[in-house]
Design brief:
single chain, 376 residues, alpha/beta, seven-stranded parallel sheet, four-stranded antiparallel sheet, 12 helices, 14 strands, globular
Length: 376
Amino acid sequence: MKIRKIIIDEVIVPAKSGTINSPELDRPLHKLPIAGSPGWSKQFDEISKVILQVELDNGVIALGECYRGHDWPTLDAIAKSLIGQSLKAINRQSLPIGLYREYDGFECAIWDGYAKSHDLPLVDLLGGAVRERVLVSAWTGHRTISEMGDLAVRFAEQGFNCWKLKCDLEDDVVAWCATIAEAAPGMGVILDPNERWETVAKTKQRIDGLREIGNVLCLEDPIPRYMLNDYRDLRSYSSIPIFLHVSLPYILHGQRVHDAISALQNQAVDGFNFNGGLAKFQQLDHIAHAANLPSWHGSEVDLGILEAMYIHQSMAAQSCTYPSDIFGRMVRSHDLLKQPLKIEPPYAYLPDGAGLGVELDPDAISHYRIRQEIYS
């Protein structure tokens, strides 16, 4: 189980036409600063990702995928440090590498390799599945009101019963939700302002209209995350649940596991959107489950390897009962998998086989590749 080779492919996989925002709404959705540009200045599908193939001396090829916005010197240093190491000696709870955004991609590959070497599905390393399938939602970015009805009908016909929407203060979310309620009765809505509703007063103005419509499942991060007293105020203001996104890959923003504990101590939330690697996501799930609060698995609209990991994680997570963000294939032009994940809205299903249970499509990798590095 020694690592003898690591292949890193950098790819750019664009979104399908029309799947992000309305054509007249040019609103980038990448939240973090990147390449000298501030946050919210780049569209996420313009930013490259890397795919990891980790070859072990027992013949196993383990797979990983990093979040967008990687750093090549960091990738280079991590890959070189792992060559020759045995998966038997690596503590999977705390890898011998620094805490970077690249961490979870290598963690995914190491867990995949360990599970494959023992002919186990990855979910078994997490304690085993607690459900037969994972609830998932539809997704888009910012939309004009004129598009809402047709999109709601299309998603409902596909089988979705929940639609997650990005929004900010410029979006008329009350009109959105009213249109959705009329076009697709029974379609739940998750609104995600990404902290951009700014204040309690502005948020309450929107809640006043939304609660009359009655189709909002929750508000995620309506105001800045540090304002936990104001989150508690919003919880008491209406019956619309208030959720906090704890995204451990947002290392630059300082997000950590203890954010979930602080939210509970302040009685600030009704549930969570958790995003993170295998070991830390399970820790977050245990916190939510112990508090008897629901969660879902977040994402960065990723490709097939990370989404396969999310399914394994969600299958093993007791708290993960809200629709998870596993919708990359409906947005991206390819998931880079030979066999796509089984997603039959509103559910995603565990892939068959050991480890992640997925295979890379070499032709797709070759098509979208912009750089490759090999370490041995």
